[in-house]
Design brief:
single chain
């Protein structure tokens, strides 16, 4: 399911064909992604509540149908408003409802390896653009054209998401993996927080700010990668590899391997480490310039740090506030990513327009990551858990 949903990150492959066909400007087409991110983050909260109350089946079915329908309807695009509705609103809703289910389900099935399990689930989201982005850009669009590509992807996604939705089930009440028993102290002190109880904790606000600023830093740089690399003289083929393969692979690795690391080193410890690395990686990416080897390495690290936040924050929410309301609780925390999706690229664009170079954006991203790191250093768990 998440492989299909993750094609949201491959939006950039559709931008040039749409602009060439309709004569739209980049500000017009970039708004499609902004709308999708906003609707995704907001609908995640409602979807999380539905998932917690009724289970994952209907929520994930709705998500799969909506994201597939959104892609299919994009094939009939003739004006921007229509595209905003189909990809931005319908596709964003599909992502919100579809993405809301795997994290709490995996957290319940694998309490002993929660970080790795959730990381594998959301890692598929990070890898989606690495698979379907090149497929659309290099094969489908040249061979069949843009409208048919949207229809083909919509059909593929419908099959994938329906299969995934039908396989998602919550474990029975009282389930524990064979041979696993939580420590007595943890079992005694652990409890499930309601959303209102979570919102009364200091930890939530520190994590929300760190999540928003950390992802803003990542998205600020990611949104500027292609024009930055192009200005440094990087060839078109290398650009495609950088964003659709190296970046997506780093994103997926960050989600999976950082999740696995958090099982052993602690959720907050991993977040602190990766955000700290991000503070260094942002200026290093700018310094890499046209050196392709160092540029690829820096891009991989930046995406890794970004992917870490999408994985480990979800696991930390289940640890700190319990799994009973994990869908809605993480949905509320996830609104930080929605804010980041709006302000990160926007700040990057404003800084470039003002200074006419990318240094200001990359160094500002490092500063935002530094503030996020301070917030993470102040976080203290609200329940006895892996920290």
């Amino acid at each position: 399911m998440n492989l299909a949903l993750g094609t949201l990150y491959a939006w950039s492959v559709f931008v040039a064909p749409l602009e060439a066909q309709f004569g739209w400007k980049r500000a017009d087409t970039s708004m499609v992604f902004t709308i999708a991110v906003t609707v995704f983050a907001l609908s995640f909260v409602a979807a999380g509540r539905i998932q917690d109350k009724y289970g994952p089946l209907w929520c994930s079915l709705a998500g799969g149908i909506l994201v597939s329908l959104g892609f299919y309807l994009c094939s009939f695009t003739t004006d921007l408003t229509y595209l905003y509705i189909c990809f931005g609103v319908i596709g964003g809703l599909g992502n919100g409802f579809g993405y809301a289910t795997p994290i709490p389900v995996m957290a319940k099935w694998f309490p002993d390896k929660r970080g790795l399990a959730v990381g594998l689930a959301v890692g598929g989201y990070g890898a989606g653009s690495a698979i379907f982005g090149p497929l659309a850009q290099l094969k489908l669009i040249p061979a069949y054209g843009l409208p048919a590509t949207f229809q083909i992807l919509g059909a593929i996604f419908l099959l994938m998401t329906m299969t995934g939705a039908l396989l998602l089930r919550n474990p029975p009440a009282g389930y524990r993996p064979a041979g696993w028993s939580p420590a007595a102290a943890k079992a005694a002190s652990a409890r499930d927080f309601t959303p209102s109880e979570m919102l009364r904790t200091r930890t939530f606000y520190l994590m929300w700010i760190a999540y928003a600023l950390g992802c803003s830093a990542g998205l600020m740089v990611i949104s500027q990668l292609v024009p930055f690399a192009r200005s440094a003289g990087i060839a078109a083929a290398a650009l495609s590899t950088m964003t659709l393969v190296v970046g997506a692979f780093g994103n997926a690795c960050g989600r999976i391997l950082s999740g696995w690391m958090s099982d052993r080193l602690g959720r907050i410890n991993v977040l602190r480490t990766m955000i700290g690395i991000c503070v260094i990686a942002m200026p290093a990416l700018y310094a890499a310039g046209s050196n392709l080897v160092f540029l690829y390495a820096a891009v991989f690290v930046v995406y890794w740090c970004y992917g870490t936040q999408l994985s480990v924050n979800g696991v930390a929410a289940a640890d700190f506030w319990g799994v009973k309301n994990a869908g809605v609780n993480y949905g509320i925390l996830f609104t930080a990513w929605g804010v980041a999706g709006i302000i990160g690229p926007r700040i990057g664009g404003v800084l470039f327009d003002r200074y006419q170079n990318y240094q200001a954006a990359f160094y500002t991203a490092a500063a935002l990551a530094a503030v996020a790191l301070v917030c993470e250093l102040l976080v203290r768990p609200t329940r006895s858990s892996t920290t």
